[in-house]
Amino acid sequence: MTSTRRQFLASVAGATAAGTLATRGSGVSEASRQTTGAWPMHGADPANTGYRPDATGPKSDVGPAWEFETDEPVTAGAAVVDGTVYVGSRDGNLYAIDAAAGTQAWRFDTGSDVRTTPAVADDTLYVGAQDGVIYAVDTTAGNEEWRFGTGDAVMSSPAIVDETVYVGSRDGNVYAIDATDGTERWRFETEFWIESSPAVVDGILYTGSDDGTLYAIDTEEGEKLWQFESGNRIPGSPTVANGTVYIGGQDGFIYSLDAKSGEGGWRFNTDGAITSSPAVANGVVYVGSRSHQVYALDAEEGESLWSVDTGRQVSTSPAVADGVVYVSSESEQVFGYDAEDGNELWSVNTGRPVEAAPAVDDGAVYVGSENGYVYGLEEGFGSTIPTGATAPGSGNDSAPAAQTDDPSLFDDLGYLAVPLGVAGVTTAVGGGYYYLYQSGVLDPVDSASETFGDGEDDTADDKSNEESEPEPEDEAPDDTDDSGDAMPPQQSQLWQLIVDDVTERAAESETTAIQDFVVTKHLDRETLSAPVLVYEIESVREEAAEVQLTEALVTTDGEQPKGDNWHVEGEKLIYEAVLDPDETVTTLVGRPDCPADRADDLLGKPTVSVQDI
């Protein structure tokens, strides 16, 4: 994300940053690309409608017909074409899986997390990764055809129309790339990240930006036709149907806009941030929200037809087929709801949050989970418990995992100072309980070992009394914390998972540039009973310097904030660290001093002081 923060600093100074480009030889046919198949890209089509009128999906007695294991969480949606499921994983691989048997056909190593849905046209697959690269991969054998470099991570899923790949990047640009050879046709620059997946209809590209704007761009020249200001970030993706654009954002509203002019029609408040695309089918808009709800809205009037509570945030796009709305939820479940009235038809528990959007084809739903598995869900398998939905160490491999309860479970806010025994190492990590709650690591230690690596003692039942395994004196530590002290490898891995989880889950972010430092705050106000923030602090100085961030306490009575390298002095919360030139550090702090109704105060600009060393 370094390039993005630099771009923000440059924009403050009145300059602009440009992306980078790298291509390889093509070997791809010059014929026009055709996107065929039941679910060839994000949202099923270039308009992101999330609807296939001719597709069939499961309606009852649903469970996993097969399970495919990757090495890390699967938070990207799948593309399904000609009997093959294409899906990426955070293990850095893109997988081609036989849709009938659940067996691997091939895999392609991107070397970086894949968090976007692939797009398939003819015999080529296009996908972006966290290394900032768009890859074109032959679907027959999984060989690379070309690659295109952007200036930052790619969280936007590509859309393919004719012979052009349209995709956004966290470098702030949306790109039009020649699908045959990977050369750039044009780029359009916005003021901040683009995580939104573009919709392309009738020669117009629509994309949201984290600068709070929805842009309509001419696909021939890459010129802006109109823009709509929402007032908050738009990481979600637009959907176009019947001459109307539907878009949701961090402000919790879904907007209806005229596709040609950008003039507003209606807006509907979901009471939670929207980070996904709406699905539109048969005059109804289906949208998930971080309010835990899925809503069905009249497409013309914006009136609620029904809503259901999934138990946790819905951060991905619904899929609609065969009269059923398929929904993934961070309640660890995948649901099938009747499209007419919202009645639950079935649900499948994966044992971990589900942040991957479902894809539907030929009577099956294909979806990944944070437990690292991809599932083929079909009728007739309702009695099968998915792998990952069991409680390891329970002595009963078929026992369902305990459901994650409401965040009020942690009202005591002990999550900021709880020791966690993982693989024989006792750690006290600021925000550690946050991750425990999210991932279910409150299961016996075997579960934690599976998540964080094998340990010396996987049989201990009482983690709170378990003594730390001393590290050999001649073994170098794998990592250090922000203070420079040695951090055990398990703690380092846990810490990064905590930081990544808060950053992804954050409903709001704010970036400021102060004294040659760029500070980005990520605020998650919803998951626990007190706000949690991750700070990313980047130095753009040419010399090392000591930086101090100072924040005012919101209230001084009650429990004080806790976090790594943070301390309280009087009515101030202070963070101190030494940063080398061009170094970026991350730090997490919980804010039990801040009442929920004052969480907006936490996104203000911190006081920053810098001392040369």
Automatic annotation (TrEMBL):
Biased composition regions of type Basic and acidic residues, renumbered to the chain: 594-603
Superkingdom, natural source: Archaea
InterPro entries named among the record's database cross-references: PQQ_b-propeller_rpt, PQQ_rpt_dom, Quinoprotein_ADH-like_sf, TAT_signal, WD40/YVTN_repeat-like_dom_sf
Renumbered residue ranges of the record's region Disordered: 21-63, 386-406, 447-489, 591-613
UniProt-listed PROSITE patterns: TAT
Pfam families tied to this protein: PQQ_2
Composition-biased stretches (Acidic residues): 467-484
Domain Pyrrolo-quinoline quinone repeat per the UniProt entry, residue ranges: 65-187, 251-383
Protein name in the entry: PQQ-binding-like beta-propeller repeat protein
